[in-house]
Every structure is written in structure tokens, then in C-alpha cells.
């Protein structure tokens, strides 16, 4: 099976790490896979990519196209290829504009409309959570398949040793925030407000953004608690990565976080009130030990997820398509 992954370049990455991780796991499970990267965004960049992709498909044999995000899906559709197209929606291209204002809210509404218009033209849709599934127009084509987590990369390690390697304080407890500090949806301001409310000198907030993806497992293992404060999410990978590392978590109730965390002790949900977040961080720090997160997310191990995706590919490639 020859599959072409389509993804757009991001400022810090040629291929977004979780998309690259998924692609490599598919390769390890027998899929012959190549990457087609759209180097620049904006309308002009995507239009140019349509013509580039046509040339690519004329020269290279493929069985199936798997596009990531709706704009990449449109690039595939507008080549008018006869190949089946699978699209993965990631969250921001499907869910609403709750919590956003002005131009950002308008942009999100445009993104949602573009994703809805795309759905009739693809053969299968992958979403990361039930919340995203509920927003779909073409539910009959869709399956919920969260991103997998690499258990070899994300696993518990010695906290003190990792902190020395990173140059992180070994004297204070560490509250880790891995999101973009100025991106409104990631809501770093809530954590800073909670820190001001707590007035607890025994812990400090660590926000190493941006950092090399290879450092993410180290930072998670350096932390006493990982905080996700987002206003909106689809299926945040950092929660699964923290679970696989047995790291306590404090999170807002967004995306599929509740499904992932379940009843894992040492993991807590917070409202958007700084006082509540400060209290939940206090509880997580008092928990003071590893969680059972790794055991609780065994079903999200990356090769298990890869097999589910391959199952979708096989159904799409059947002589009589499942999806009309």
C-alpha cells in the first residue's frame, strides 16, 4: 500500500511532530509512505500546491492520499485525482469559535465552513475526539482515532537527573506549561493568574516554549505537574504524553481530555477561575508521586493507533467503497 501524506509546513517544523510520528509508525507497520509538504500557507501557497501535487501524482504511483487539516484536503480534492482521499481534521478546522474575538473569531468561522464544504468530496474522515465528531456534517464517513503516543519516547524517567540535564531547579516543585505563552487559545494567562493567587514560593512555572520536540519528554519528566489551560482543544497530544510519562496533570475540560484521563489519580480538572486552578495545582503537588497514566492509556500506544488507521485505508481501498 502506497500512501501520500499531505501536510503544510509550520514556522518551527517541516512536518508537525505528531504528523511525522504518525507517518513513521505507519511505515513501521508496513505502509509505503511518502510526505508531500506545502511550504507556505495563505491562499497563494495552497493554489500553487495544487499544481505541484498534480505534477507529483503524474510522476509517482500512489494508492491513497491522506491529508492533514482541511486546507490540505482541498489541495488534494482540487487536483481532481481519482485516488481515494482520507482527511484528518485536527480540531481548529472543525470546532466553534467559543472564547475568540474579532478577526480570530471570523477566521475560525471561515475555517469551519471550509471544513464542512470539504467533507462530501473525501472518502473517509478521521477526527481525534467525540467532540470533533459531533461537529461533522458527514458523520457516516468518519471514525474517531486519537493521535497515538510513542511509549518508547514518552516514559517515566528520573526527575532529578533530568532536571540537572535541563538546568531546571531541583529545589522547587515545577509546574510545566508547554503551550505558546501568547496564543490566546492556550490561555497561559490563566496559569499565571493562578500562580499569583497561590502565592506559594515552593513551586514555579516552567514554560520552555519553543523547544525542540526531542526535549518535550525531558521537560515532562522534569515536572511535578503538567498544566493545560486551553480554552479549546481537539485531542491535545501533551496530555497523552504526560499520561505515558506518569506525570500528574491539571487541565481544563476541553477536547477529549476527560476521556483520556478518566479516573487516574493525581490528575485534576479545573474551571477557568484562577482560584480553582491554584487549588487543583496544590492537590496535584500534594499527590507527590507518579500516576498510573501509562497503564491507563495503553490503548493509545502509537502502533495500536497505526493499525486502526491502516484498517481505515483498507476499507477505503475496497473495490466497492464503504463510503458513497
| Percent in helix | 40-55%
The amount of beta strand, in percent, is 15-25%
Across the major sheet, the strand order is: 2-1-3-4-5-6
Beta strands, count: 11
Structural class: alpha/beta
CATH architecture descriptor text of the largest domain: 3-Layer(aba) Sandwich
N- to C-terminal distance = 22 Å
Radius of gyration: 20 Å
Q: Could you say which overall geometry the principal axes of the C-alpha atoms support?
A: elongated
Provide a quick synopsis of the model:
This is Glycosyltransferase. The chain is an alpha/beta fold.
How does this structure look, described?
With 324 residues, the protein is an alpha/beta fold. The protein has two domains: 2-148 and 301-316, Rossmann fold; 159-299, Rossmann fold. 41% of the residues lie in helices and 15% in strands. The protein is built from 13 helices and eleven strands. The protein has helices spanning 17-28, 42-59, 70-77, 102-118, 130-134, 159-166, 188-198, 216-222, 237-244, 257-261, 274-287, 293-296, 302-316, and strands spanning 2-8, 32-38, 64-68, 85-88, 124-127, 142-144, 173-176, 203-206, 225-228, 249-252, 267-270. The strands form two sheets. A six-stranded parallel β-sheet has the order 2-1-3-4-5-6, sandwiched between helices. Strand 4 (85-88), helix 4 (102-118) and strand 5 form a beta-alpha-beta unit. Helix 6 (159-166) crosses helix 8 (216-222). 43% of the residues are buried.
